[in-house]
Task: structure prediction
Amino acid sequence: MTASVQTSIYSHTRLYNKRYYSGNLYTVYVNTEDGESHEYEIEADSFADATRQAEQYAYGLYNDITYIEVYQFA
Result:
């Protein structure tokens, strides 16, 4: 059985920061061993940071991760 879930994570203070730009937004797909796919929209400073945050959220849901895909908003 497969299920898709989308979650958006933004920090309020950075939205009003002068250094904010859309290059800080990433779409992350976390695929689990159960065949589930979780989609996250994450605000991060790098691909590595976006991946780290997605791993934390997935582990918080007690999911075993098969692989992670990270895409940057254009």
About this structure: The longest strand covers residues 25-32. The beta strands are 4-9, 25-32, 37-43, 65-72.
